[in-house]
Amino acid sequence: MPEKPRICLVYTGGTIGMVEEDGVLRPPDNPEDFLDMAPELRGFVDVDTCFPMNKDSTNMNPRDWERIAREIHKRRNDGYQGFVVAHGTDTMHFTASALAFAFGPNLNFPIVLTGAQTHPQVLHGDARINLIRACKVALEPLAEVSICFGDFVYRGCRAQKKDERRFDAFESPAFPPLAYITETIDIQPLAQLERPPEMAGEVNFRPHFSDGVLQVSLIPGLEPDILLESVLASGCKGVILQSFGAGNVPDRDAGEFSFEEFIGEVVGRGKPIIITSQFPAGSTLYSSYAPHQTAVNAGAIPTGNMTSAAAAVKFRWVLSLVEREIQSGVVPIGQRVQRIAKLMETKTVGELGPATVELADSVPNNVELRRVLR
Ligand code: ASP
Known about the structure:
CATH topology of the largest domain: Rossmann fold
CATH architecture of the largest domain: 3-Layer(aba) Sandwich
Helix content: 25-40%
Radius of gyration: 21 Å
Order of helices and strands: EEEEHEHEHEEEEEEHEHEHEHEHHHH
Bound molecules: aspartic acid
Number of helices: 11
Structural class: alpha/beta
Strand order of the largest sheet: 4-1-5-6-7-8-11-12
Shape: globular
CATH class of the largest domain: Alpha Beta
CATH superfamily of the largest domain: L-asparaginase, N-terminal domain
Number of domains: 2
Number of strands: 16
Largest sheet: 8 strands, mixed
């Protein structure tokens, strides 16, 4: 019998492994039985398991991201063709982004996150099938952190949750799917474009994420003054303003509702502010509206067409990176905010890029597109 390929399954929790008791869904007491729901896996793959945690993903935090990354990193040379991470859907896109930044652009094996909308006892549900599909995808030459869910495989740092019931739970608003799940795993040529095999060097593993990030989702009439005390407290190291539209922040009614002064004051005290959007990141890279420009001119950092989740995770990652650069003397403390802005605006793992329209119009061997994507 020819040897079967091997993958490692990292089980972290989520509905995909939950049990229902008295109408309440909870992680199981013993997750070791998790693979029993899909005995057919044995037909095509040998699966080893590891169980770093057993949580509803609502309770995931940056320390958990680091832990999952370390579990994978320490096994990376153990002969696995890929890794599957079973995870709750609520924060799967955050963890996927975190793993992408932790492993960086030289990642040279698949890390596939999956989960489910229904627990394994729901006969017509998606737990078993998503697990099997993710294991298939982990055997493909897709050196990415991806989310395999329903009929799609998305770049993890481009995906976001869009529905809490339907089986197509995720979307990738500004980047096309990496693969479609049909009778075969239909990998799209674009998926390989940014990571030609010759690019793969040793993984630059940086699984650190800063604490102290405060995110505020704007509503009309929000007074920036109410935020000032929390933002200026020593525990706060950076602020995310989740804006309207394509990065637009109120800039009228100074002293009451305008954020212009707030941004200037906070950034002036060495605390960076990034601007994300409450809407799915679409094809807009930068907003041309005046309220966006005012915020940027006051010192806020735009995040292009990153998803809100990817921008938040990247911000934590960049804050931690720059802190270490300052400690080791590579970056002077006075340059902190500029350095953070530069890294936030630099595409690192495919989290940021050309507008959807450009991508849709592209053909895989389009030289111009290759230039833009790199
Ligand atoms: N609350 C669950 C979780 O994120 C939802 C799910 O898995 O679908 O763990």
